[in-house]
């Protein structure tokens, strides 16, 4: 009997250890995912994430009635980054009921991230902005460019050596969000800087690769 109880207790402890060995993130119904750790996503199902640093991008999608007119609101793309271990988290967004509230949210999004004890969880916040026509956006490349910047919600990959494999995204040949050079000289300088960033990204991923992948990479370069 004692052996049976010991085995049973050990099994329960082992199960509980595996049950919390990840980060779960519950999302509100008025949220629509765009990217999860650099990978395209959609919907608002509860996320199961690896322990450590995670980054998600999403929009607020909602409807409200003002002056008898039904209005659909779609926010800018919001980015949040947080670092948690074995946690159950919940993200909440405010209710938007007017044009003014929608404008204010787009200017300064108010978000709340709490754990299972209803304690506030620290996170960094930013936005993925693209000026001009919004059709045909490549969010993965935009995020890759954003993550080379020093902005607070960025992964700041430039010179980084400890990034999870879940964060891999294609290098972007695009300016970091929020920069809009007005003159051709500025555009040339920005292009040169972007090429440097691409080279740094290639160096970074080469260092992370195994020997077989490095060999294939060299053969591919030599064949061109």
Mind telling me the C-alpha Rg? 22 Å
Question: Which percent range fits the helix content?
Answer: 25-40%
Discrete helix count? 5
Q: Report the portion of residues in β strands.
A: 25-35%
Structural class: alpha+beta
Task: Provide a descriptive summary of the structure in words.
The chain is α+β, with helices and mostly antiparallel strands and 224 residues long. Helices cover 33% and strands 25% of the residues. It has 5 helices and 10 strands. It has helices spanning 2-19, 99-107, 139-146, 184-208, 211-223; strands at residues 23-26, 31-36, 39-40, 47-49, 52-66, 69-74, 77-84, 88-92, 112-114, 124-128. Strands 2, 3, 5, 6, 7 and 10 form a 6-stranded antiparallel sheet that branches. The longest helix has 25 residues, at 184-208. The N and C termini lie far apart (70 Å).
List the helices and strands and how they pair.
Elements: H1 2-19, E1 23-26, E2 31-36, E3 39-40, E4 47-49, E5 52-66, E6 69-74, E7 77-84, E8 88-92, H2 99-107, E9 112-114, E10 124-128, H3 139-146, H4 184-208, H5 211-223
Parallel strand pairs: 1-8
Antiparallel strand pairs: 1-4, 2-3, 2-5, 5-6, 5-7, 7-10, 8-9
């Amino acid at each position: 009997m004692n052996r049976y109880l010991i085995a049973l207790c050990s099994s329960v402890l082992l199960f509980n250890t595996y049950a919390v060995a990840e980060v779960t993130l519950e999302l509100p119904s008025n949220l629509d995912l765009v990217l999860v750790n650099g990978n395209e996503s959609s919907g608002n199902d509860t996320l199961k994430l690896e322990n450590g640093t995670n980054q998600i991008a999403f929009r607020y999608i909602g409807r409200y009635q003002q002056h008898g007119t039904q209005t659909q609101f779609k926010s800018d793309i919001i980015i949040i980054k947080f670092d948690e271990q074995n946690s159950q988290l919940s993200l909440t967004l405010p209710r938007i009921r007017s044009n003014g509230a929608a404008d204010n949210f787009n200017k300064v999004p108010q978000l709340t991230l709490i754990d299972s004890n209803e304690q506030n969880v620290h996170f960094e916040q930013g936005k993925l902005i693209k000026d001009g026509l919004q059709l045909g956006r490549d969010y993965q490349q935009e995020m890759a460019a954003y993550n080379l910047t020093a902005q607070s919600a960025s992964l700041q990959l430039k010179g980084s050596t400890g990034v999870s494999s879940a964060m891999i995204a294609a290098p972007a040949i695009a300016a970091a969000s929020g920069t809009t050079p007005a003159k051709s000289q500025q555009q040339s300088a920005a292009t040169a800087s972007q090429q440097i960033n691409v080279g740094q990204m290639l160096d970074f991923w080469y260092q992370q690769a195994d020997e077989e992948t490095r060999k294939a990479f060299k053969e591919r370069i030599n064949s061109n």
